């Protein structure tokens, strides 16, 4: 947990520990990066406004490091504008919650992210065009090169690989990837689709995530 408001930090620690979570705490961005390496957490609750280093920059650095690039991150902030949430997600956060919030809402989001981040049982290799996913090793390749995905983008690609060429609305993808019991803004899907495309598409490669206007997205090959 990375939070510089002492009262909020005490409240969060108390409630999370009461629910059985082991909580480690940092009060600024620089300390947070050190604690992530030392503590190896399962999830990070990251305040946006921090001394020394902002939550956005902490999130960027977590995503740059190979050992932490898949670490689930929930951004916590008082910023309520839609563009702020999009900015936080574009930086690499997996979810975003605004203050004030209930501990029930926060822990529901934590449980959803932790479920998605857990290793999945070994399964058959999946392939579409030149994309190959190995669920057993949790690896993705395209044209033989490794593709590095965050946990949400991995789940999104996994779902699309299971249903190639089928068009899914944003609401369909929210239910399938985030869960029907979790409230996430529909626009969040667009942010994660952009991140998935950025990871999948090297220069000169076709974009296999097709946008279907007024309908949604599909894993498909554009017909010339």
Structure description:
- This protein is an alpha/beta fold and 224 residues long.
- It has helices spanning 6-18, 29-39, 55-64, 82-91, 103-117, 151-162, 170-178, 187-200, and strands at residues 44-47, 73-77, 95-98, 126-128, 131-134, 139-142, 145-147, 209-212, 216-219.
- It is built from eight helices and nine strands.
- The strands form three sheets. The protein has a four-stranded antiparallel β-sheet with strand order 4-5-6-7, with helices on one face. Strands 1-2-3 form a three-stranded parallel β-sheet, sandwiched between helices.
- Strand 5 (131-134) and strand 6 (139-142) form a beta hairpin.
- Helix 6 (151-162) crosses helix 8 (187-200).
- It is globular and about 55 Å long.
Distinctive features:
224 residues, alpha/beta, four-stranded antiparallel beta sheet, three-stranded parallel beta sheet, globular
Give a quick precis of the structure:
By secondary structure, the protein is α/β, with parallel strands linked by helices. It has helices spanning 6-18, 29-39, 55-64, 82-91, 103-117, 151-162, 170-178, 187-200, and strands at 44-47, 73-77, 95-98, 126-128, 131-134, 139-142, 145-147, 209-212, 216-219. Helix 6 crosses helix 7 and helix 6 packs across helix 8.
What is the topological layout?
Blueprint: H1 6-18, H2 29-39, E1 44-47, H3 55-64, E2 73-77, H4 82-91, E3 95-98, H5 103-117, E4 126-128, E5 131-134, E6 139-142, E7 145-147, H6 151-162, H7 170-178, H8 187-200, E8 209-212, E9 216-219
Parallel strand pairs: 1-2, 2-3
Antiparallel strand pairs: 4-5, 5-6, 6-7, 8-9
Helix pairs in contact: 2-3, 6-7, 6-8
